[in-house]
Structure formats: structure tokens, C-alpha cells
Amino acid sequence: MAAPRKRLELFYDVVSPYAWFGFEVLCRYQHIWNIDLRFRPAFLGGIMHATGNKPPGMLPKRGEYMLKDIARLGKYYQVPIQVSAEHLQHLLGPLSLGAMRFITAIDMTEPQFLEPVSREFWIRFWSQHEDINQPASILAVAAQAGLSSELAQKLLEMVSSPAVKNRLRATTDDAVKYGAFGMPAIVAHFNGEQHHFFGCDRIELLGSIIGE
Questions:
Q1: Do the domain assignments include residue 145?
Q2: Which residue among 33, 53, 93, 101 sits deepest, i.e. has the most Cβ atoms within 10 Å of its Cβ?
Q3: Could you read off the pLDDT of 1-42 as tens digits, one per residue?
């Protein structure tokens, strides 16, 4: 008898450091666990608005904890993240909308670049503390991920299209329908059931649910 198919959806936004950790762990384990991993780029700001959630850094004590927590997780997961109190304060605006629309355009037309481009956005924002929304910044990320200038420019022109905006909005709505209130949001489809997990620290529980 064939083993039950293990399909995972990872909803993420590159403005979330915890989504970066979850992204890297699932990328590493997708072949070990033989899972069908689908990346679902969404907009964290839309999820927060739809659910009434607030950025964790808005609570001072939690912000203090996050500085230590992110540093520890970065070391544990071997992710080159650098964070400061000033950087956390900058997370209160819609910093990733341009980036997530560009990633959505890639998801729609050039999905083979989805993993490297997403990773380069995280590196630029969380390791180098540089902008990820302006056209020049987006093109720099694309070049770093190995896209040709012609392809990157074509994708950049798609960012303002209704098709890309609607796709990002629909994916964000999907995340909320699954029960997401933050990121990363992971949905496992296994044995005819759906299992929603929040956060990068639930990977062990996810593995247990899918028999790994």
C-alpha cells in the first residue's frame, strides 16, 4: 500500500523573521520527509488586519524578548539574521507589500525562482537591513537570486497589475480561512484532514502529525 500523501502549504511574508526560520526548516526537510511543499506568498499586514492581531513588537516586554529569541533561533537554525530594537520598530508599517507582490508574480509565472528569491528578500531585509519595496531594491534582490535583468524587469512590471494584486489578496484570504492570524502559517493535508500550525516552533508537532 502506498504511503499517504503528505501535502504542506506554507503561508509566509518576508517581513516575518519567524516565517524565515519555518521556510528554511521545511526546505531542508521536504525531501527527508517526502512532502509536497507548496509555497504560498501572502501579505502579513492583510492577515493582521483581518484578524485584529497586532505586531508582537508593539508590546515592549515582548519586543525585548523577541530580540533575544530571534538571535537564539538564528543561531540554532543557522540562519544569518541580524536584529536590533530599531529594526523591530520599523516593522509597524507595510514594509513588504512591494516584495510580496513581486514574489507573487514569480509564483504565477516563474515558480522555479520562488525559493531563492524569497530567501534573498529575507537576507536583504533581516541580514542587511535594507529596503525591499522600491523598484531598485527589488531588482537587486532578483539579480542576487540569479534572475536575468530582462526577466526581473518583466516581473517588476507585473507588480502593479490587477492579476498580481488579486492573487496576493486571494492567497492572504486563503490563509485567514485556514485559521491564520500570523506567520508562518503551515497547513498540512494528511489522511483527508487539514492541520493548521502557527510558528516556526511547531515543526516537531507537525512531523508527529504526518508520521515523521
A1: yes
A2: 101
A3: 556 678 999 999 999 999 999 999 999 999 999 999 999 999
